[in-house]
Every structure is written in structure tokens, then in C-alpha cells.
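Summary for the steering committee. The consortium agreed at its last meeting that each partner would contribute one worked example illustrating the joint modelling workflow. Our contribution is presented below. We chose a case with several input lines so that the handling of multiple components could be demonstrated. No manual editing was applied between input and output; the record is shown as generated.
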Amino acid sequence: MDNSDTNQSGGGAAAPPVTHALAEYALTTAWADLPERVRTEATRAFVNWSGCALGGSNTDTVGTAVRAFAEFAGSGTVPVLGRHERFDAAHAAVLNCLSSAAHTFDDTHLKTITHPTGPVAAAVLAVAHARRVSGVQALLALVVGMEIECRISSAVFGEHAGTDMGWYATGISGGIGAAAAAGILLGLNRSQMISALGLAATQACGLRATHGSMAIALVPALASRNGLTAAFMAAADFTCSDHAIDGRNGLLQVLSPAPSSAAIYQGLGVEFELLQNTYKPYPCGIVIHPAIDACLEIAASASLDPRAIERVDLLVHADALKLCWRKLPDSALQAQVSLFHWAAAALVCGRAGLDHGELACVRDPRIRALQAEIHALADPSMGSDQAKVSVRFKDGSVRSVQVAHATGSIDRPMTDAQLTDKFLLLAGRVLDQRRATDLAEACWNLHRLADVDSFVHLAVGL
Amino acid sequence: MDNSDTNQSGGGAAAPPVTHALAEYALTTAWADLPERVRTEATRAFVNWSGCALGGSNTDTVGTAVRAFAEFAGSGTVPVLGRHERFDAAHAAVLNCLSSAAHTFDDTHLKTITHPTGPVAAAVLAVAHARRVSGVQALLALVVGMEIECRISSAVFGEHAGTDMGWYATGISGGIGAAAAAGILLGLNRSQMISALGLAATQACGLRATHGSMAIALVPALASRNGLTAAFMAAADFTCSDHAIDGRNGLLQVLSPAPSSAAIYQGLGVEFELLQNTYKPYPCGIVIHPAIDACLEIAASASLDPRAIERVDLLVHADALKLCWRKLPDSALQAQVSLFHWAAAALVCGRAGLDHGELACVRDPRIRALQAEIHALADPSMGSDQAKVSVRFKDGSVRSVQVAHATGSIDRPMTDAQLTDKFLLLAGRVLDQRRATDLAEACWNLHRLADVDSFVHLAVGL
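What follows is the complete predicted structure of the assembly.
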């Protein structure tokens, strides 16, 4: 009988649990050692995330959560982007991440459909209120947390892992990344960091069945809280076993039919999953984006009359239908994850912005009528950033567009200027233009900031 | 393409999601309609749980959590059994449940290895502080919450579900039961209750890899908080989709290779899983108990000298080795889940109480030496409440005992008197004898109480 906790492979000399390597990585990585591209990408991720958090801070989802929290959250002093209330650290993390996810406009690690910045950045800001944290320290914690998060996701949801797509990847890995980031800033020692990672791993959770309701944004938000509180608990010497990720009865074992921690270890500290992170041009499920690109191109070129359309055929990656199969959504939250709504809206309106996810657009009879004519098929030859759209008009003509790489994908990334425009658009929903511009500037220069909490105070709602 | 959220069976007329039936059940069940046996069992469960919570309230695990929570929990007014501090409702629920799990002495729904009372009872007490709740209301909420919890566990972990044993069942289902119970007491309407159940389902989590560390008790504790806060959030109209349990990308789909909600529906309101609940005579993993019974019988009959033992053979249910395989544990927390420690301790000491899980006993050289001679084998013919132990002595004699039903199992339940003794033993660790006796009386008469919060105040530590 095997008396080891790390018997995943079932034989041979057991390697130490992966939490040991992750703790070592988290506690020894220095800002100065990071490649310039990684530093730059961390800043881009923070700009994108801060804009999303500001822009989502006045949604129903966030307002409802604030009301609910009054029943059980204690009084606190931690500010939240775009809001005027103060909270305890745990609920500040929940709310900042909830805001950033509320418009489904946050970033995406494409190969695992993880939205990596939210849980980690929200935990970092919460610690930055409790402890003095510089911009460089915050960015370093963000890099390490996101890296660990994306590597956990890669192990669970990577190409050959075969894990059920019903799991919400950010909820599974986000807390572990947040724990690492918060743990660095709290100055955890090695064994505390190992416990923090385990305490977050045992809280990994989240279902795609939340899609279409406010709860879709709560999954990453709770991951942020879970990681943050795991780090605080570990700092007080609350213990967790070291094999909660890759050991017996650990996270990889229960989630994956073929558990392997290789994707976590390989190239750690040398290769960066953060460089595979992408930013959305459209506020909806990432798997919808290639089809939107194609529809927008068709709409732009054809000065299109939707009534002239007889039929629309979408060839998409399988995940687009696994996650965004809804037709005729009847709320803005359901429309966020409706391939059919966004394809129709893009064709009818020639745009795909925040307005096109609002209820007025969801109920637009032209958009609803067109959805009936849209036929979608999963095509195994399509990459996750690809789609082909064919529109057949009643006059017999056909217009087809094939998208090789969606806007905002790794091969066609959002530029810094596009990210700034997105930030200003989102921040402008809660702040005047002057403050929004100042904040964009502050985000791009986060590495120069002596105290990150001062940034949050700049971004607090009036 | 299927445009339904409830396509679990893949065809035919879809039944409404199971959350609808559960909400109906939660909102229409009346105390007067419950069979007398169910009412009695609810009280027995509460007596057992309260004792465990009091007895665990002064452990390192709980003390460490209290220190950690100061970093992020707000100030609050909710009392916790056996402690003098006050907390917000969410952390009061965490701590009451953490205490009750800290000695691994809480109850067990044997067929799913769920510890059902903790998450639900702790959530009930937290609401009982925020709202006036009578003893009957509390017991009714407890019955409904535990019933839903055990039925979710049955669907996920029941005989044919084939779910990975690495999942910690209480963490998966406990929050859903707690949400139902808290939701009843908060007066949720039907759609709010459906959201509460979904918000809890998407937080289902917990790994057996936490065993052997403080985190083992945190899993049910967080389930309690998750269910409680789900109910508070639903009360504020934070929404979750209705198919988070049995729909597309829902809990059953991601957890079970053969998802079926039959075990949740069948006999709901007529048959009671609560009647399958059991109470532990020994403070350790339930799967160890049959072997302890056998070892104690051998020790009692043989006036045994451990040095005379040559070899011990244990035939046990497979779960005993899947969950409690550890040999030579080096901490009290690891010993909680060590079949070998408890078998050896029972043989050497002739008893298996709280003292025998303490570090002094874990380090006892006689007990450690004997573990080396213990050989355990999973025997497919053994039920989960069965074991066979054979001790071969150096003089060539052999003593074998086969346990058909472990003490405290369904077929050999703990009596009310035994539960009272257990309560007094545990409560006596933090309260004087007079108060402990008064509290035992109050627990047995909970249904007569006008305001449950007054009970909690009686049980607060000095």
C-alpha cells in the first residue's frame, strides 16, 4: 500500500508536490529579472482590467451585491474602484473583481478560456490598502499570480486535459493565483505560501451554468476573495497540506481524467503564459468574437439591409456553441453569452459595443427576427480565434467572410492606443473625462507609483 | 442545436430544473407535517452537533482562524458557541461549523460520507441572530437543509455515481443545504430560493487532500458561509440561473460521469435521508470506526500486552484506505485520518476517545511500534460499517473479530443517553459542568424555545 500523499503517477520516486515549486517561484521572482515584454504585458493587463472595473462598477450586478453584503460584511475602510462605499478587504476584492467581470469585457487566456487579471488584481488592490505596496510590487505580484493561475488552468483545461467545459476556468484557478499574489505582498514565508496555495485550491469552484445571470460575474469575484483570504489565513499560520493541487485527492486528480502537473512546472519562470493573454474589443463571451468580426466586415462592406437577408451560416469553434448556444436571449445578461444575438446585432447595427449588449438592443425586433435565420455549426477545423460567416441574400447573392484571427487575439492583439480608448470608454461611464484621462495615465505608469492605494483613491466614485 | 439549458438527458421533453422542485419543497414543508421520527432525529443531530461545536471551539484550528479573520472580517455582533468574541454573520457561520468539525467528531450520512449538520446548523444560528427564529423554525430549516444536502450528495456520490472520492462531499453539498435553510428563515420567495440554491451550487468545492491539516475542518465551514451568503444575496435579488444543479454546465454534469438528478427528486418530502444520519463514538474519520470497534473488542477480551503482538491484519471497506491510508502520522491532525494510528491506539490503550487523538498519544512509542505490524487490505465484501481484524500473537495464537455494524452506524445507532454523554464530554472542555448540563437540556428541548439566539448566548464562552 502506498503511504504517500503524492502518488499521482502511481510509482517511482515521487517528486515533491507542485506547491513547493510554486512557492519557490512566488517568493524568489524579482521585477528586475522579468523580461521587458512581460513587464509591458502586465501593465497592459492592468490598464484593461482597471477600465473594466470602473465601467462595471455601476451595473445592477454590482449594486445588488453591495446591498446584499450589508447583511454580513463588516464595516471596513477599503475603497473600491468607481464606488463611494468602503468595505472590508475581502468584500473589496469581491466587488472590484465583480465590477471588472460585469460587462464580460475582461481579458482572456485563450487556450483555457480563463479571465486571468480580475481575481489577482482585485486581491492585490485589497492588500495594497492593508499594507503599503508600490506599483512595482503590485505588478510583480500580478505577474506571478497570473502566471500561476494560467498554468493551473493549462493543467486542468489545456488541450489534452479533457476536463468538462462546464467548469468555469477562472473560478478554478483564479483563487490560487490571487493567493500567490496576496501572499507575496503579505510577506508569507515558504510554508505559509504552500498553505495559502492549498487553501485556495480546496476552494476552487465555479460553474458555466451561472451564465445568463448575475452569478456569471460572481465566480471570478469569489475566486479573488478566496485567494486573498487564503493568504491572510496562511499568514496567521492556518495550515493546509502541501499536496492539495497535484497530490492524492487533490485538485488535478478530481478535475482531470488524465491529471498531470507538467503544464504547471514546464518552463516556470522562463516562459510566460501572461504573454498569451488577450483583451476583448467586444463586451461578450470571447468565443463569440471571431463571428462578430466576420459579421462586422460583412455589414461594413454591404451597407446592409437586414430585411434583405435570407439566411446566415456560422462556422465556429466547438466552444462557441458549448458556451454561447443561446438564441433569442431575453435579458442583457443572457445576451452576453449568446452567439446568435451578437451575430445578428453586428449585422444589423454594424457595431458591437456596450450599447449592443443593453436590453434595448436585445429586444430590437430586427435583431430578434434575424436570429431566426442564423444557423451555427461547430467546425473542427476552426481555431478558437476563427470563424466563417456566410450571408445569403434574398436576391440570391452570397457574401462570405472567413476570420483567420479575431481582433484582440494573440495574432492580432489590441494596440496600446486601442486599450486606452477602451479604458476611457469604460471609465467614462462613472467618471468625468478629466479624471478618466488622469487615471489612464496613472495605469500606464503604475510601475512609477510609490503607493498603489493612492491610485485606488483616485478612482473612487463620487 | 439544442437551445435549452436543461438538456442533461439530451432529448425528449425537458423536466424543469431540479431547483424548482427543491424551492417548492423548501418553501412548503411544515413542521407539523414531518413524521415524528424525523423531528426526533433532527433534535438528535442538533444535540450531537452543538456538543461538537462547543468541544472544538478552543482548538488551535479555531483559534488560528479567529486571529486570521481579524484581518478581513468586519466587526459584528453574532456570538459563536464556546467563544467570547463576536463576528459578522458569515464568519460566525464559518467558526461555528469549523468548531464542530475540528475534532472530526461530527455526524455522517454514511452512504455519501457527508457530514450534514455542520454547514446547515451553523447557517441557521447565524440567521437566528439577524432575525428572530424559534426552535421549531430552526429545526424545520435544519431538516430541509440537511435533506437537500444529503440528496445532492446522493446524486453526486451515491452508489453508482462514480464521482472521484477526492472530492470532500460536505463541501460539495453543504452549501446548498445551508442556502435552503437560511433561505427559509430569511423568507425568500420562490425565485429568490432558486437563485440561492444556484449561488450555493456554483460555490460547491472541497478536497480530501486537505486531510491531515487544519484545512480539513475549513471545507464544511466555508460551505456553511457560502450557503448563508448565497441566501442573503438572493434575498437582495442577486440572481443565478435555475439550472446550476442539473442543467447544462451545472454541478451534476461536471462532477459525475453519469449525471442524474433522480436521487434528488425521488421520494422528496416522503422519504428522509436524515434518518440515514449517524453519530460518531470516536473522534476520527468514520471509515476507521469499524476497525476501532474490532480492536477495542480484542483489547478488552485479551487484557492485551501490545508487545506480545506479532502482526495485525485489517480487512476494511475500500474507502478506509482511499481516505485514511496514513501510517505513522506525525501530528494530531494527520492522526485524525489514520486508520493505522487508531487501530494501534485502540489495541494498546483499549479506548478511542479525544485523548487518543492528541499528540501525546500520536507520539506514544508503543502505538507507533505497533503500526509497523499492521497490514490493511480493502475487501470488496465489506460494507462501509464493517471490518475484520485478526491479531496474531508471538505465541502463535490468533484472535479475530468481525464487526457486522460499527457502533454508531445505522443498524447500531448511538442512543440518546450516549449522545448526552458525548455532549457533556465535549461541552465540558469549555464550560463548567452546570452550564454544560443546562445546555444539553436546552438542546434536547430546542423545539420549545421561542428564540434560538438565546440558546447561543447561553453557550457563549466566558
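Chain B touches chain A through 74 residues (CB under 8 Å). The first helix of chain B runs from residue 18 to 28.
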